Amino acid sequence: MMRTRHRRPKSLTRLPLSDAIRTLRLTLLAALALGLPVVVLASGHWGAVRARADLLAGSRGTLDLFLANLTSEVDKNEAVPFLLARDHDVMALLATPAPSPALVDRLNRRLEETRIAVHAATIYVMNRQGLTIAASNWNTEGSFLGQAFAYRPYFQAALTGGVGRYFALGTTSHQPGYYIADPVSAENRTGSPVVGAVVIKVGMERVEQGWAAGPERVAVTDSDGVIVITNNAPWRFHSLTPLAAAERIRIEANHKYADLAITPLAITTQPFEAAMPFAPSKTHFLMVSGAVAGTDWTLHVLCDPAPIRSRAVAAALIGGFAMMIVILAGFLVLGRWFRARERAIEQQRAREDVERRVQERTSDLAEAYDQLSREMRDRERAEQVLRTAQTELIQAAKLAALGQMSAGVAHEINQPLSAIRAFAENAVTLLERGRTATVHDNLVQIAELTQRMADITRHLKGFARKAAGTLGPVSLPDTVHKALMLVAPQIRAAGIDLALTNRMVEQVGEPNRLPPVRAEDVRLQQVLVNLFTNAIDAMKDRTRPRLIIDLDHDADAGEVILRVRDTGPGIAVADLPHLFLPFFTTKGATEGLGLGLSITSGIVKDFGGTIAAANHPDGGAEFIIRLQPMESPR
Ligand code: ADP
Q1: What DSSP character marks residue 234?
Q2: Residue 570, by phi and psi: left (phi above 0), alpha (psi -120 to 50) or beta?
Q3: Per-position DSSP letters for 305-339, written without gaps between them
Q4: Atom of ligand 1 nearest to the CA of 623
Q5: Domain 85-203 matches domain 469-627 at the CATH topology level
Q6: For residue 258, what is the DSSP state?
Q7: Mutate to test the pocket of ligand 1, among 529, 534, 599 (most ligand atoms within 8 A of CB)
Q8: DSSP for 400-456?
Q9: How many helices (H) and strands (E) does the chain have?
Q10: Torsion angle in degrees (nearest 10) through CA of 38, 44, 49, 53
Q11: What is the DSSP letter of 468?
Q12: How many whole angstroms from 591 Cα to the centroid of ligand 1?
């Protein structure tokens, strides 16, 4: 059968995978190249936005906290001048142009005690002319006593009956402070003329100290935009933005900042909402501002935008790395997936290949089986034909043999018949002569001759009987004798010298030691007659014809051996292979059918024996038959 195996070349099965992986690799590289800048920028932007929001929230928190802190500091001190302005001693002090030194002294001490109690810088009382007539720092150098501050805006505000609030550098102390002035009325009622003012100066050191810790810069600007309180000392008394010329003149006129020249800070600020500052700078700040309640101040929280930049950079790096990791992981996972798929496909293919091969083999086998059974059927049929032919041939051969034998038998019977007739005629004559004794001898001779004739016919009958087909123990010497009797006339006519040896008799002196063979008497006779006839034929023209029959028993091989040898010309070597084939003959058409040996070998095989032909070293042909011994039932 032609087999068409669809085995794919290996490169073809691999190609799609490497293609797929190459495509995947290119796609992922392209994604990396295009996506990386986008992801880096986006995550950087996101980081910056988050950082700015965090910074803004922190700054707002700081702003609210500090506003509350500052307001409470101011509020706390607002009560002090309010209460003192209604104090009897203060009113008594201002009621007269020349107060008693005892009153002044007592008031000085009370103001000092109060200042210490409320942590104020100074508390003092001014008369209508702006002259300080009692002060908490009465006993220190640079005391306010006797000093006039009529030009101060807070005093002027108090004179009009309102509360004066003002931030300034102390002209004497040069300490910055928040001044709160409450008017003192002549009588303790509204509408009463103002006779003076009680002023408290609150130092901002404590507030500033509380603010110093934070990372943000905090600055409080007054109504002129000048920084008056800050946790960054160098910024104090600088303006956040440059001042107008007229403004500067006014500030210098009322000695608000003593004799300090106000210059703008060398910084830039911008609200959180403004565009992102990317250029790093130490003087650029993000700023949130809020008004301080109860004052004209504004509190600013300034913060360094550097964290925005660093967080933007960190987020960009993280984003970039994350993307690379995702792409790498994607590559690994997809690569593994592709490989697993390829393995699965290859396994599937291998399975299919095996299945196909199994199918092919199965159909091959089925075909071979069909072929075999066809051949067997043909053979059976041929054997059947052969068997039929063989049976017919055997019968034909028997007839031929019978024909051949009839002549011999007729000759054999004619001889005793004519002898009997001679004896009978002779007996009649002798009876007439009364020689009864000689008549008796003649009758005995006649009886012997008829016995001999009966023997011959008995053998012929036995030979003509159809083979019974059942095998049994047969005595080989007996059968040899019977066969020899059948061919005796030819042997005698040809003058053949007969030699029969039974080796078992020679060895043990007992013919029965040659075991019976597994055969059938009549068919074995037929075999022997055939061999003998062939030998007789072969020795027809020989000068000293001799037929040698030899019986033997090979106990080890478990066989009884019969050898039939002649002194004829032997068998041509070229003929040896064909000898046992039907119709092989070297004799003329009228003499031989070429069936004898074929039938002979068929019969021997039926007995389970073998037959072989050879040329004897001393000349002549030798046929060797081996038969199975078979013990006769006792
Ligand atoms: P047939 O005798 O009719 O030819 P056989 O089958 O008996 O047929 O013998 C076949 C041939 O075998 C003979 O023609 C002969 O050539 C050869 N053959 C048989 N026996 C002998 C023998 N004893 N010596 C020589 N040739 C023999």
Answers
A1: G
A2: left
A3: SHHHHHHHHHHHHHHHHHHHHHHHHHHHHHHHHHH
A4: 23
A5: no
A6: T
A7: 534
A8: HHHHHHHHHHHHHHHHHHHHHHHHHHHHHHHHHHT-HHHHHHHHHHHHHHHHHHHHH
A9: 12, 19
A10: 160
A11: -
A12: 11
pLDDT < 70 regions, the chain:
1-17, 171-174, 188, 213-214, 275-280, 394, 397-398, 400-409, 411-412, 455-456, 458-469, 507-512, 589-593, 632-634
User: What is the CATH class of 469-627?
Assistant: alpha beta
Q: What is d(CA 122, CA 58) in angstroms, rounded to the nearest whole number?
A: 35
Q: Please state the domain extents for the chain.
A: 2-40+318-381, 85-203, 469-627
Please state the atom number of ligand 1 nearest to the C-alpha of residue 585. Answer: 14
Which among 585, 590, 598, 599 is the best mutation to test ligand 1's pocket, defined by most ligand atoms within 8 Å of the CB?
A: 585
Strand partners, 148: 131
* Ligand 1 shell residues, CB under 6 Å: 530, 534-535, 538, 566, 568, 571, 579, 584-587, 592-598, 621
pLDDT at 1: 44
For domain 85-203, the question of CATH label 3.40.30.10 is answered with: no
Burial 468-489 (b: 16+ CB within 10 A, else e): eeebeebbbbebbebbbbbbbb
- What would the 3-class secondary structure string for 493-552 be? HHCCEEEEEEHHHHHHCCHHHCCCEEECHHHHHHHHHHHHHHHHHHCCCCCCCEEEEEEE
Going from the Cα of 534 to the center of ligand 1, the distance in angstroms, rounded, reads 5
Q: Using CA atoms, how far apart are residues 268 and 466, in angstroms rounded to an integer?
A: 145
Q: Ligand 1 mean position to 408 CA, how many Å? A: 20
CB 238 within 8 A of CB 265: yes
Point out the ligand 1 atom lying closest to the alpha carbon of residue 591.
Answer: 3
Copy the structure tokens of residue 7: 């085995």
Q: And the tokens for 310? A: 């660093």
Q: List pLDDT tens digits, range 503-561.
A: 777 766 666 678 999 999 888 998 999 999 999 999 998 999 999 999 999 989 999 99
Using CA atoms, how far apart are residues 20 and 13, in angstroms rounded to an integer? 12
CA-closest residue to ligand 1 atom 26: 571
Strand pairing category for 546-554 and 497-502:
parallel
Give 541-546's long-range contacts (Cβ < 8 A, gap of 24+).
Answer: 542/567, 542/568, 544/497, 545/494, 545/495, 545/496, 545/497, 546/496, 546/497, 546/498, 546/499
Residue 479 CA to ligand 1 centre (angstroms): 22
